[in-house]
Amino acid sequence: MERFIDPFYKSQLIRTIIMINIGVFLSWQYSFYEGSLQFMAQNFLVSWDALAKGRFWVLLSSAFSHNAFFHIFINMFVLHSFGTIVIQITGRKAFLVFYLVAGVSGSFLHAATSYFLLQEPYLNALGASGAIAGIILLYALLFPKKKILLLGFIPIGAIWGALLFVGVDLWGLIAQTRGGGFPIGHGAHLGGALMGALYFLWIRKKFRDQKFKELI
Fold first, then answer.
1. Which of 31, 107, 128, 186 is most open to solvent, judged by the fewest CB atoms within 10 Å of its CB?
2. What's the whole-model pTM score?
3. pLDDT tens-digit series, residues 125-137
4. Residue 98: how many CB atoms within 10 A of its CB?
């Protein structure tokens, strides 16, 4: 079946996504002029205000947008680490659709939580974190007993690590509604993770063959 063949070919999609993110990152870095910086801000940042003004494309474009090196490095490292495994289960086309949907879901939930919970419709966000959260949760549900390294050095079961991240994001979002917390897009993470859980429920029904059961 297509999802089990030619892993090198499938990894090209992961590399393409990474290169697009790097391209947008470099566009931020070289936006020296007011006009170019304004263009990036209007087209690669998501907020409720941007959606209210009809710039719906930012739901997707912001998910490929980073303006800090550490932010893009972590997201792309995690994408490569987990995405190259998940894509072997889903196949290229399904993975791409899932990645885009998780990214859009994360962007929308950030905008919605900012407006309805935080009363900050102008709160901008950017980054692939929503899509990455979806991939992490999907990986954890597919391979719950596999060990991952929490914070880069603490071994923990994948499902427990993913649930811990979800718990931290829930706590962080609640803290933000009370005026605390960190400047992190917890809503985006939760939106992407939700898509990971929903896709897992769908994929379990689709692939009920022995080969899939052996993988998980």
1. 31
2. 0.89
3. 999 999 999 999 9
4. 23
